[in-house]
Amino acid sequence: MDIFFFLLFAIVAVVCGISVVIQTHPISSALSLIGVMASLAVLYLLLGAEFIAMAQIIVYAGAIMVLFVFVIMLLNSGAEAKRGRSRTAVILGVPSLIIFLALIVFAVQRFFPSAPNVVFGSFTGGGPAQIGNALFTRYLLPFEVTSVLILIAILGAIVLARKELD
Amino acid sequence: MEFFIISVLKAAVLAGILLTTLAYLQWVERKVIAHVQVRMGPSRVGPHGLMQPLADVIKLMTKEDLLPPYVHLGFYLLAPFLAVSMALISVAVIPFGPEVQAFGYSTWLQLTDLNVGLLFVLAISSLGVYGIALAGWASNNKYSLLGGLRSSAQMISYELPMSLALASPLLMAGTLSLRGIVESQSGYYFGFVPRWSIFHGPFPQIISFVIFVIAAFAETNRVPFDLPEAENELVAGFHTEYSSMKFASFFMAEYANMITVCSMTTTLFLGGWLPVFPAPISNYVAPAILFLAGAICLYHGLNPRRPLDRLTLPIFAVIFFALGVLFAIPAVQPYLTPLFWFAAKTGFLLFVFIWVRATLPRFRYDQLMGFAWKFMFPLALLNLLVTGLLVSLTD
Questions:
Q1: What is the SS3 assignment for B113?
Q2: How many CB atoms lie within 10 A of CB B288?
Q3: How far is A53 from chain B (nearest CA, A)?
Q4: Under 8 Å CB-to-CB from B74, ≥6 apart: which residues?
Q5: d(CA B221, CA B131)
Q6: Could you give phi then psi for residue B192, rounded to 5 degrees?
Q7: What is the pLDDT of residues A32-73, one digit of tens each?
Protein backbone atom coordinates (compact mmCIF):
# COMPACT_ATOMS: atom_id res chain seq x y z
CA MET A 1 0.00 0.00 0.00
CA ASP A 2 2.80 2.39 0.99
CA ILE A 3 4.80 1.67 -2.14
CA PHE A 4 1.70 2.24 -4.29
CA PHE A 5 1.06 5.66 -2.76
CA PHE A 6 4.76 6.50 -2.90
CA LEU A 7 4.92 5.74 -6.63
CA LEU A 8 1.66 7.55 -7.31
CA PHE A 9 2.63 10.76 -5.55
CA ALA A 10 6.25 10.61 -6.63
CA ILE A 11 5.04 10.53 -10.23
CA VAL A 12 2.59 13.37 -9.55
CA ALA A 13 5.40 15.40 -7.97
CA VAL A 14 7.73 14.85 -10.92
CA VAL A 15 5.06 15.57 -13.52
CA CYS A 16 4.05 18.76 -11.69
CA GLY A 17 7.70 19.73 -11.39
CA ILE A 18 8.21 19.37 -15.15
CA SER A 19 5.00 21.27 -15.70
CA VAL A 20 6.31 24.20 -13.60
CA VAL A 21 9.07 24.65 -16.15
CA ILE A 22 7.26 24.01 -19.42
CA GLN A 23 4.05 25.96 -18.77
CA THR A 24 4.08 29.32 -20.49
CA HIS A 25 1.50 30.98 -18.26
CA PRO A 26 2.72 32.11 -14.82
CA ILE A 27 -0.49 31.01 -13.10
CA SER A 28 -0.19 27.49 -14.54
CA SER A 29 3.39 27.31 -13.30
CA ALA A 30 2.38 28.51 -9.85
CA LEU A 31 -0.42 25.95 -9.64
CA SER A 32 1.94 23.18 -10.74
CA LEU A 33 4.29 24.24 -7.96
CA ILE A 34 1.40 23.86 -5.52
CA GLY A 35 0.91 20.36 -6.92
CA VAL A 36 4.58 19.58 -6.24
CA MET A 37 4.28 20.83 -2.67
CA ALA A 38 1.07 18.91 -1.98
CA SER A 39 2.55 15.64 -3.27
CA LEU A 40 5.70 16.25 -1.22
CA ALA A 41 3.44 16.61 1.81
CA VAL A 42 1.95 13.19 1.04
CA LEU A 43 5.46 11.72 0.79
CA TYR A 44 6.29 13.18 4.20
CA LEU A 45 3.12 11.57 5.55
CA LEU A 46 4.26 8.21 4.16
CA LEU A 47 7.55 8.66 6.02
CA GLY A 48 5.62 9.17 9.26
CA ALA A 49 6.37 12.88 9.57
CA GLU A 50 2.82 14.20 10.07
CA PHE A 51 3.89 17.55 11.43
CA ILE A 52 6.25 18.33 8.57
CA ALA A 53 3.57 17.28 6.08
CA MET A 54 0.99 19.66 7.52
CA ALA A 55 3.55 22.45 7.92
CA GLN A 56 4.50 21.93 4.27
CA ILE A 57 0.91 22.52 3.18
CA ILE A 58 0.18 25.37 5.59
CA VAL A 59 3.40 27.29 4.99
CA TYR A 60 4.26 26.58 1.35
CA ALA A 61 1.00 25.71 -0.39
CA GLY A 62 -1.22 27.79 1.88
CA ALA A 63 0.79 30.95 2.56
CA ILE A 64 3.74 31.42 0.23
CA MET A 65 2.04 30.20 -2.93
CA VAL A 66 -1.09 32.23 -2.19
CA LEU A 67 1.18 35.26 -2.12
CA PHE A 68 2.75 34.20 -5.45
CA VAL A 69 -0.64 33.71 -7.07
CA PHE A 70 -1.84 36.98 -5.56
CA VAL A 71 1.05 38.93 -7.06
CA ILE A 72 0.69 37.24 -10.45
CA MET A 73 -3.00 38.12 -10.48
CA LEU A 74 -2.32 41.67 -9.35
CA LEU A 75 0.18 42.20 -12.15
CA ASN A 76 -2.21 40.33 -14.46
CA SER A 77 0.65 39.14 -16.63
CA GLY A 78 -0.25 37.10 -19.65
CA ALA A 79 1.31 34.00 -21.14
CA GLU A 80 4.88 34.21 -22.39
CA ALA A 81 5.22 34.26 -26.14
CA LYS A 82 6.99 31.15 -27.40
CA ARG A 83 10.10 32.02 -29.28
CA GLY A 84 11.80 29.84 -31.86
CA ARG A 85 13.98 27.25 -30.19
CA SER A 86 17.66 27.16 -30.89
CA ARG A 87 18.71 24.14 -32.94
CA THR A 88 21.70 23.27 -30.71
CA ALA A 89 19.39 23.01 -27.70
CA VAL A 90 17.10 20.59 -29.56
CA ILE A 91 19.95 18.44 -30.81
CA LEU A 92 22.03 18.42 -27.62
CA GLY A 93 19.23 18.73 -25.07
CA VAL A 94 17.73 15.24 -25.15
CA PRO A 95 21.04 13.32 -25.07
CA SER A 96 22.39 15.52 -22.27
CA LEU A 97 19.20 15.00 -20.28
CA ILE A 98 19.53 11.22 -20.68
CA ILE A 99 23.19 11.32 -19.65
CA PHE A 100 22.35 13.48 -16.63
CA LEU A 101 19.61 11.11 -15.48
CA ALA A 102 21.86 8.09 -16.03
CA LEU A 103 24.59 9.75 -13.94
CA ILE A 104 22.16 10.44 -11.11
CA VAL A 105 20.83 6.86 -11.19
CA PHE A 106 24.38 5.55 -11.21
CA ALA A 107 25.43 7.74 -8.29
CA VAL A 108 22.39 6.75 -6.23
CA GLN A 109 22.92 3.05 -7.00
CA ARG A 110 26.61 3.28 -6.26
CA PHE A 111 26.64 5.30 -3.05
CA PHE A 112 23.25 4.53 -1.49
CA PRO A 113 22.61 0.86 -2.34
CA SER A 114 19.92 0.48 0.34
CA ALA A 115 18.86 3.76 1.82
CA PRO A 116 18.64 3.67 5.62
CA ASN A 117 16.06 5.73 7.48
CA VAL A 118 16.87 9.38 7.76
CA VAL A 119 18.34 10.19 11.17
CA PHE A 120 19.06 13.54 12.75
CA GLY A 121 21.39 12.71 15.61
CA SER A 122 19.39 10.92 18.25
CA PHE A 123 16.07 12.34 17.06
CA THR A 124 13.31 9.97 15.97
CA GLY A 125 9.61 10.41 15.28
CA GLY A 126 7.68 12.96 13.26
CA GLY A 127 4.71 13.75 15.50
CA PRO A 128 4.17 17.30 16.73
CA ALA A 129 5.03 16.37 20.33
CA GLN A 130 8.46 14.94 19.46
CA ILE A 131 9.32 17.85 17.17
CA GLY A 132 8.21 20.36 19.78
CA ASN A 133 10.30 18.67 22.46
CA ALA A 134 13.35 18.55 20.23
CA LEU A 135 12.95 22.19 19.16
CA PHE A 136 12.50 23.59 22.64
CA THR A 137 15.11 21.53 24.49
CA ARG A 138 17.95 20.23 22.33
CA TYR A 139 17.75 22.70 19.47
CA LEU A 140 16.57 25.73 21.46
CA LEU A 141 19.48 27.98 20.56
CA PRO A 142 19.36 27.39 16.76
CA PHE A 143 15.58 27.83 16.92
CA GLU A 144 15.79 31.18 18.68
CA VAL A 145 18.63 32.35 16.45
CA THR A 146 16.48 31.50 13.41
CA SER A 147 13.61 33.55 14.78
CA VAL A 148 15.91 36.53 15.30
CA LEU A 149 17.14 36.05 11.72
CA ILE A 150 13.57 36.10 10.42
CA LEU A 151 12.85 39.23 12.46
CA ILE A 152 15.87 40.93 10.89
CA ALA A 153 14.66 39.88 7.44
CA ILE A 154 11.20 41.35 8.11
CA LEU A 155 12.67 44.63 9.36
CA GLY A 156 14.97 44.74 6.35
CA ALA A 157 12.04 44.22 3.99
CA ILE A 158 10.11 47.05 5.64
CA VAL A 159 13.09 49.41 5.49
CA LEU A 160 13.74 48.58 1.83
CA ALA A 161 10.10 48.90 0.78
CA ARG A 162 9.32 52.02 2.80
CA LYS A 163 8.67 55.22 0.96
CA GLU A 164 10.87 58.10 2.02
CA LEU A 165 8.92 60.39 4.32
CA ASP A 166 9.87 64.01 3.93
CA MET B 1 -12.04 -5.34 6.24
CA GLU B 2 -14.44 -4.55 9.08
CA PHE B 3 -12.63 -1.28 9.59
CA PHE B 4 -13.02 -0.52 5.90
CA ILE B 5 -16.78 -1.23 5.88
CA ILE B 6 -17.38 0.79 9.04
CA SER B 7 -15.37 3.70 7.63
CA VAL B 8 -17.32 3.67 4.37
CA LEU B 9 -20.60 3.55 6.30
CA LYS B 10 -19.54 6.44 8.53
CA ALA B 11 -18.39 8.47 5.54
CA ALA B 12 -21.69 7.86 3.75
CA VAL B 13 -23.79 8.82 6.77
CA LEU B 14 -21.66 11.90 7.42
CA ALA B 15 -21.85 13.02 3.78
CA GLY B 16 -25.63 12.53 3.76
CA ILE B 17 -26.11 14.52 6.96
CA LEU B 18 -23.71 17.26 5.87
CA LEU B 19 -25.34 17.78 2.49
CA THR B 20 -28.85 17.81 3.98
CA THR B 21 -27.71 20.29 6.60
CA LEU B 22 -26.18 22.43 3.85
CA ALA B 23 -29.47 22.55 1.96
CA TYR B 24 -31.58 23.29 5.03
CA LEU B 25 -29.12 25.77 6.50
CA GLN B 26 -29.97 27.98 3.58
CA TRP B 27 -33.70 27.61 4.34
CA VAL B 28 -33.04 28.43 8.00
CA GLU B 29 -30.98 31.45 6.98
CA ARG B 30 -33.72 32.83 4.74
CA LYS B 31 -36.36 32.23 7.40
CA VAL B 32 -34.33 33.81 10.22
CA ILE B 33 -33.36 36.86 8.16
CA ALA B 34 -36.97 37.22 7.05
CA HIS B 35 -38.22 37.18 10.63
CA VAL B 36 -35.54 39.65 11.71
CA GLN B 37 -36.77 41.96 8.96
CA VAL B 38 -40.47 41.26 9.81
CA ARG B 39 -41.17 39.27 6.64
CA MET B 40 -42.42 35.74 6.12
CA GLY B 41 -39.50 34.19 4.24
CA PRO B 42 -39.99 31.22 1.91
CA SER B 43 -43.53 29.91 2.43
CA ARG B 44 -44.87 28.74 -0.93
CA VAL B 45 -43.04 25.49 -1.65
CA GLY B 46 -44.31 22.93 0.83
CA PRO B 47 -45.52 23.73 4.37
CA HIS B 48 -43.55 26.74 5.71
CA GLY B 49 -41.39 26.59 2.60
CA LEU B 50 -39.76 23.37 3.79
CA MET B 51 -39.43 22.03 0.25
CA GLN B 52 -37.65 25.22 -0.86
CA PRO B 53 -34.13 23.65 -0.73
CA LEU B 54 -35.30 20.84 -3.03
CA ALA B 55 -36.82 23.35 -5.43
CA ASP B 56 -33.59 25.35 -5.36
CA VAL B 57 -31.52 22.28 -6.15
CA ILE B 58 -33.76 21.43 -9.13
CA LYS B 59 -33.60 25.03 -10.30
CA LEU B 60 -29.81 25.17 -10.09
CA MET B 61 -29.33 21.82 -11.82
CA THR B 62 -31.65 22.53 -14.71
CA LYS B 63 -30.46 26.07 -15.36
CA GLU B 64 -28.52 26.78 -18.50
CA ASP B 65 -24.81 26.34 -17.89
CA LEU B 66 -23.31 29.41 -19.51
CA LEU B 67 -19.67 29.19 -20.50
CA PRO B 68 -18.34 32.65 -21.34
CA PRO B 69 -15.99 32.51 -24.35
CA TYR B 70 -13.28 34.75 -22.86
CA VAL B 71 -12.47 32.75 -19.70
CA HIS B 72 -9.31 30.74 -18.98
CA LEU B 73 -11.17 27.50 -19.43
CA GLY B 74 -9.13 25.02 -17.36
CA PHE B 75 -8.87 27.24 -14.30
CA TYR B 76 -12.43 28.44 -14.72
CA LEU B 77 -13.65 24.84 -14.41
CA LEU B 78 -11.14 23.91 -11.70
CA ALA B 79 -12.06 26.76 -9.34
CA PRO B 80 -15.55 25.69 -8.18
CA PHE B 81 -14.36 22.10 -7.83
CA LEU B 82 -11.46 23.23 -5.62
CA ALA B 83 -13.68 25.46 -3.53
CA VAL B 84 -16.31 22.84 -2.79
CA SER B 85 -13.93 19.91 -2.24
CA MET B 86 -11.73 21.88 0.16
CA ALA B 87 -14.85 22.98 2.01
CA LEU B 88 -16.17 19.43 2.41
CA ILE B 89 -12.91 17.63 3.31
CA SER B 90 -12.22 19.13 6.73
CA VAL B 91 -15.39 17.64 8.23
CA ALA B 92 -13.54 14.28 8.18
CA VAL B 93 -11.54 15.06 11.32
CA ILE B 94 -14.23 16.71 13.42
CA PRO B 95 -15.37 14.59 16.38
CA PHE B 96 -19.14 14.45 16.82
CA GLY B 97 -19.25 12.16 19.82
CA PRO B 98 -17.38 9.74 22.07
CA GLU B 99 -16.64 6.07 21.48
CA VAL B 100 -19.82 4.02 21.08
CA GLN B 101 -20.57 0.30 20.96
CA ALA B 102 -22.86 -0.93 18.18
CA PHE B 103 -23.52 -4.56 17.16
CA GLY B 104 -20.38 -5.73 18.93
CA TYR B 105 -18.12 -3.17 17.28
CA SER B 106 -16.77 -0.14 19.03
CA THR B 107 -16.20 2.97 16.99
CA TRP B 108 -15.84 6.69 17.43
CA LEU B 109 -18.43 9.12 16.17
CA GLN B 110 -15.73 10.72 14.06
CA LEU B 111 -14.46 9.78 10.63
CA THR B 112 -10.79 9.75 11.56
CA ASP B 113 -8.63 11.12 14.34
CA LEU B 114 -5.28 12.53 13.25
CA ASN B 115 -2.67 13.47 15.81
CA VAL B 116 -2.29 16.65 13.76
CA GLY B 117 -6.07 17.08 13.29
CA LEU B 118 -6.10 20.79 13.96
CA LEU B 119 -3.22 21.47 11.58
CA PHE B 120 -5.05 19.43 8.97
CA VAL B 121 -8.09 21.70 9.23
CA LEU B 122 -5.86 24.78 9.00
CA ALA B 123 -4.04 23.34 5.98
CA ILE B 124 -7.26 22.55 4.13
CA SER B 125 -8.79 25.92 4.92
CA SER B 126 -5.65 27.68 3.67
CA LEU B 127 -5.99 25.77 0.38
CA GLY B 128 -9.60 26.91 0.11
CA VAL B 129 -8.36 30.37 -0.89
CA TYR B 130 -7.28 29.04 -4.28
CA GLY B 131 -10.85 28.20 -5.30
CA ILE B 132 -11.95 31.79 -4.86
CA ALA B 133 -8.76 33.44 -6.10
CA LEU B 134 -8.70 31.29 -9.24
CA ALA B 135 -12.38 31.86 -9.90
CA GLY B 136 -11.82 35.59 -9.77
CA TRP B 137 -8.82 35.51 -12.06
CA ALA B 138 -10.01 32.87 -14.54
CA SER B 139 -13.30 34.69 -15.16
CA ASN B 140 -11.32 37.38 -16.99
CA ASN B 141 -13.61 40.06 -15.66
CA LYS B 142 -12.47 43.08 -13.68
CA TYR B 143 -15.15 42.75 -11.00
CA SER B 144 -14.38 39.08 -10.51
CA LEU B 145 -10.65 39.79 -10.37
CA LEU B 146 -11.19 42.46 -7.72
CA GLY B 147 -13.36 40.06 -5.75
CA GLY B 148 -10.75 37.31 -5.97
CA LEU B 149 -7.93 39.66 -4.94
CA ARG B 150 -9.90 41.05 -2.03
CA SER B 151 -10.73 37.57 -0.91
CA SER B 152 -7.16 36.30 -0.97
CA ALA B 153 -5.86 39.38 0.85
CA GLN B 154 -8.61 39.09 3.44
CA MET B 155 -8.15 35.37 4.01
CA ILE B 156 -4.36 35.68 4.37
CA SER B 157 -4.77 38.53 6.85
CA TYR B 158 -7.41 36.86 8.98
CA GLU B 159 -5.65 33.50 9.05
CA LEU B 160 -3.03 35.07 11.34
CA PRO B 161 -5.27 36.15 14.24
CA MET B 162 -7.26 32.94 13.70
CA SER B 163 -4.22 30.69 14.10
CA LEU B 164 -2.97 32.70 17.08
CA ALA B 165 -6.38 32.46 18.69
CA LEU B 166 -6.31 28.69 18.14
CA ALA B 167 -2.94 28.35 19.81
CA SER B 168 -4.10 29.50 23.27
CA PRO B 169 -6.65 26.70 23.94
CA LEU B 170 -4.08 24.28 22.48
CA LEU B 171 -1.61 25.32 25.17
CA MET B 172 -4.13 24.24 27.78
CA ALA B 173 -5.21 21.06 26.01
CA GLY B 174 -1.65 19.97 25.23
CA THR B 175 -2.58 18.07 22.05
CA LEU B 176 -3.38 18.72 18.40
CA SER B 177 -5.81 15.83 18.09
CA LEU B 178 -9.35 17.22 18.02
CA ARG B 179 -10.61 14.25 20.04
CA GLY B 180 -7.94 14.88 22.68
CA ILE B 181 -8.86 18.58 22.76
CA VAL B 182 -12.50 17.75 23.51
CA GLU B 183 -11.55 15.19 26.15
CA SER B 184 -9.28 17.70 27.89
CA GLN B 185 -12.33 19.92 28.44
CA SER B 186 -14.39 17.37 30.37
CA GLY B 187 -15.36 17.86 34.02
CA TYR B 188 -16.95 20.69 35.98
CA TYR B 189 -15.87 23.42 38.38
CA PHE B 190 -17.95 23.51 41.59
CA GLY B 191 -20.05 20.71 40.08
CA PHE B 192 -21.85 22.92 37.56
CA VAL B 193 -19.49 25.19 35.57
CA PRO B 194 -18.20 23.09 32.62
CA ARG B 195 -14.42 23.10 32.13
CA TRP B 196 -14.63 24.21 28.50
CA SER B 197 -11.79 26.28 27.10
CA ILE B 198 -13.76 29.49 27.49
CA PHE B 199 -14.21 28.83 31.23
CA HIS B 200 -11.08 26.79 31.79
CA GLY B 201 -8.33 27.87 34.19
CA PRO B 202 -5.70 29.20 34.42
CA PHE B 203 -6.83 31.77 31.86
CA PRO B 204 -10.37 31.52 30.42
CA GLN B 205 -10.16 31.77 26.64
CA ILE B 206 -13.02 34.22 26.09
CA ILE B 207 -10.81 36.69 24.18
CA SER B 208 -9.46 34.08 21.80
CA PHE B 209 -12.98 32.69 21.36
CA VAL B 210 -14.24 36.09 20.22
CA ILE B 211 -11.21 36.62 17.96
CA PHE B 212 -11.67 33.19 16.44
CA VAL B 213 -15.35 33.77 15.71
CA ILE B 214 -14.67 37.18 14.14
CA ALA B 215 -11.87 35.71 12.00
CA ALA B 216 -14.23 32.88 11.05
CA PHE B 217 -16.66 35.45 9.60
CA ALA B 218 -13.85 36.76 7.43
CA GLU B 219 -12.61 33.31 6.44
CA THR B 220 -16.07 32.29 5.25
CA ASN B 221 -16.62 35.62 3.44
CA ARG B 222 -19.75 36.37 5.43
CA VAL B 223 -21.27 39.72 6.40
CA PRO B 224 -19.79 41.98 7.80
CA PHE B 225 -16.67 40.87 5.90
CA ASP B 226 -18.29 39.85 2.61
CA LEU B 227 -16.27 42.29 0.50
CA PRO B 228 -15.23 39.63 -2.05
CA GLU B 229 -18.86 39.43 -3.18
CA ALA B 230 -20.05 42.90 -2.25
CA GLU B 231 -22.91 43.03 -4.74
CA ASN B 232 -23.34 46.80 -4.87
CA GLU B 233 -19.68 47.34 -5.82
CA LEU B 234 -18.58 44.16 -7.59
CA VAL B 235 -21.81 42.71 -9.10
CA ALA B 236 -21.28 39.32 -7.41
CA GLY B 237 -17.52 39.38 -6.98
CA PHE B 238 -15.60 36.26 -7.82
CA HIS B 239 -18.63 34.23 -8.94
CA THR B 240 -20.15 36.78 -11.32
CA GLU B 241 -19.40 34.66 -14.38
CA TYR B 242 -20.54 31.36 -12.90
CA SER B 243 -23.98 29.88 -13.47
CA SER B 244 -25.93 26.72 -12.76
CA MET B 245 -24.10 23.99 -10.82
CA LYS B 246 -20.79 25.87 -10.89
CA PHE B 247 -22.46 28.72 -9.01
CA ALA B 248 -24.09 26.17 -6.72
CA SER B 249 -20.63 24.78 -5.91
CA PHE B 250 -19.47 28.15 -4.57
CA PHE B 251 -22.72 28.48 -2.69
CA MET B 252 -22.28 25.03 -1.14
CA ALA B 253 -18.65 25.78 -0.33
CA GLU B 254 -19.65 28.90 1.61
CA TYR B 255 -22.20 27.03 3.70
CA ALA B 256 -19.93 23.99 4.18
CA ASN B 257 -17.20 26.35 5.42
CA MET B 258 -19.68 27.88 7.82
CA ILE B 259 -20.53 24.45 9.23
CA THR B 260 -16.85 23.56 9.48
CA VAL B 261 -15.79 26.69 11.36
CA CYS B 262 -18.78 26.41 13.70
CA SER B 263 -17.90 22.77 14.44
CA MET B 264 -14.30 23.81 15.01
CA THR B 265 -15.35 26.57 17.40
CA THR B 266 -17.53 24.07 19.26
CA THR B 267 -14.70 21.56 19.45
CA LEU B 268 -12.02 24.01 20.55
CA PHE B 269 -13.84 26.39 22.83
CA LEU B 270 -17.23 24.95 23.77
CA GLY B 271 -16.32 21.40 24.74
CA GLY B 272 -17.46 19.56 21.61
CA TRP B 273 -19.95 16.86 22.41
CA LEU B 274 -19.66 17.33 26.19
CA PRO B 275 -22.92 18.36 27.87
CA VAL B 276 -23.52 21.74 29.49
CA PHE B 277 -24.92 20.17 32.65
CA PRO B 278 -23.46 17.34 34.77
CA ALA B 279 -24.43 13.75 33.97
CA PRO B 280 -27.88 13.00 35.42
CA ILE B 281 -29.43 16.31 34.31
CA SER B 282 -27.83 16.38 30.84
CA ASN B 283 -29.69 13.23 29.79
CA TYR B 284 -33.06 14.91 30.39
CA VAL B 285 -32.30 18.23 28.72
CA ALA B 286 -32.65 16.99 25.15
CA PRO B 287 -36.05 15.29 25.68
CA ALA B 288 -37.25 18.30 27.68
CA ILE B 289 -36.35 20.76 24.91
CA LEU B 290 -37.91 18.55 22.25
CA PHE B 291 -41.11 18.12 24.27
CA LEU B 292 -41.24 21.88 24.83
CA ALA B 293 -40.86 22.49 21.08
CA GLY B 294 -43.61 19.93 20.45
CA ALA B 295 -45.88 21.61 22.96
CA ILE B 296 -45.32 25.04 21.36
CA CYS B 297 -46.11 23.60 17.93
CA LEU B 298 -49.23 21.92 19.27
CA TYR B 299 -50.42 25.14 20.94
CA HIS B 300 -49.98 27.17 17.76
CA GLY B 301 -51.56 24.36 15.75
CA LEU B 302 -54.66 24.51 17.92
CA ASN B 303 -54.78 28.32 17.72
CA PRO B 304 -53.72 28.76 14.09
CA ARG B 305 -52.79 32.13 12.63
CA ARG B 306 -53.07 30.79 9.11
CA PRO B 307 -55.48 28.09 7.92
CA LEU B 308 -52.62 25.80 6.86
CA ASP B 309 -51.12 25.83 10.37
CA ARG B 310 -54.04 23.74 11.69
CA LEU B 311 -52.75 20.88 9.53
CA THR B 312 -48.95 21.29 9.54
CA LEU B 313 -48.05 22.34 13.09
CA PRO B 314 -49.65 19.29 14.80
CA ILE B 315 -47.60 17.09 12.46
CA PHE B 316 -44.43 18.91 13.56
CA ALA B 317 -45.57 18.50 17.17
CA VAL B 318 -45.90 14.73 16.66
CA ILE B 319 -42.41 14.59 15.10
CA PHE B 320 -40.93 16.56 18.02
CA PHE B 321 -42.70 14.32 20.57
CA ALA B 322 -41.43 11.18 18.80
CA LEU B 323 -37.87 12.58 18.82
CA GLY B 324 -38.28 13.52 22.49
CA VAL B 325 -39.32 9.95 23.33
CA LEU B 326 -36.38 8.62 21.30
CA PHE B 327 -33.90 10.82 23.21
CA ALA B 328 -35.46 9.68 26.51
CA ILE B 329 -34.86 5.93 25.91
CA PRO B 330 -31.92 5.01 28.17
CA ALA B 331 -30.58 2.39 25.70
CA VAL B 332 -29.87 4.91 22.93
CA GLN B 333 -28.93 7.86 25.15
CA PRO B 334 -25.16 7.17 25.04
CA TYR B 335 -25.30 7.62 21.24
CA LEU B 336 -27.75 10.42 20.89
CA THR B 337 -27.05 12.73 23.83
CA PRO B 338 -23.48 13.68 22.72
CA LEU B 339 -24.73 14.21 19.19
CA PHE B 340 -27.51 16.41 20.55
CA TRP B 341 -25.07 18.59 22.49
CA PHE B 342 -22.72 18.90 19.54
CA ALA B 343 -25.57 19.80 17.21
CA ALA B 344 -27.03 22.24 19.74
CA LYS B 345 -23.77 24.17 20.18
CA THR B 346 -22.91 24.17 16.48
CA GLY B 347 -26.49 25.12 15.63
CA PHE B 348 -26.35 28.05 18.03
CA LEU B 349 -23.14 29.31 16.44
CA LEU B 350 -24.68 28.96 12.98
CA PHE B 351 -27.63 30.97 14.23
CA VAL B 352 -25.20 33.67 15.39
CA PHE B 353 -23.69 33.74 11.89
CA ILE B 354 -27.14 34.29 10.37
CA TRP B 355 -28.13 36.76 13.07
CA VAL B 356 -25.02 38.85 12.38
CA ARG B 357 -25.75 38.79 8.66
CA ALA B 358 -29.22 40.17 9.31
CA THR B 359 -27.93 42.83 11.70
CA LEU B 360 -24.56 44.31 10.71
CA PRO B 361 -23.60 46.43 7.71
CA ARG B 362 -20.50 45.74 5.63
CA PHE B 363 -17.03 47.03 6.55
CA ARG B 364 -15.05 49.28 4.26
CA TYR B 365 -11.99 47.57 2.82
CA ASP B 366 -9.33 49.60 4.66
CA GLN B 367 -11.28 49.22 7.91
CA LEU B 368 -11.30 45.47 7.39
CA MET B 369 -7.53 45.30 6.95
CA GLY B 370 -6.81 47.78 9.73
CA PHE B 371 -9.04 45.82 12.08
CA ALA B 372 -7.22 42.57 11.36
CA TRP B 373 -3.67 43.88 11.56
CA LYS B 374 -3.88 46.69 14.10
CA PHE B 375 -6.42 45.30 16.53
CA MET B 376 -7.04 41.56 16.29
CA PHE B 377 -3.47 40.46 15.60
CA PRO B 378 -1.85 42.25 18.59
CA LEU B 379 -4.72 41.24 20.84
CA ALA B 380 -4.40 37.57 19.86
CA LEU B 381 -0.63 37.77 20.40
CA LEU B 382 -1.10 39.30 23.84
CA ASN B 383 -3.67 36.68 24.74
CA LEU B 384 -1.31 33.91 23.65
CA LEU B 385 1.49 35.44 25.73
CA VAL B 386 -0.61 35.67 28.90
CA THR B 387 -1.99 32.17 28.41
CA GLY B 388 1.47 30.73 27.88
CA LEU B 389 2.80 32.48 30.96
CA LEU B 390 -0.05 31.31 33.18
CA VAL B 391 0.04 27.74 31.83
CA SER B 392 3.78 27.48 32.45
CA LEU B 393 3.40 28.97 35.95
CA THR B 394 0.59 26.64 37.01
CA ASP B 395 1.96 23.45 35.44
A1: coil
A2: 13
A3: 9
A4: B138
A5: 13
A6: -140, -20
A7: 898 898 898 888 888 777 888 888 888 888 888 888 888 887
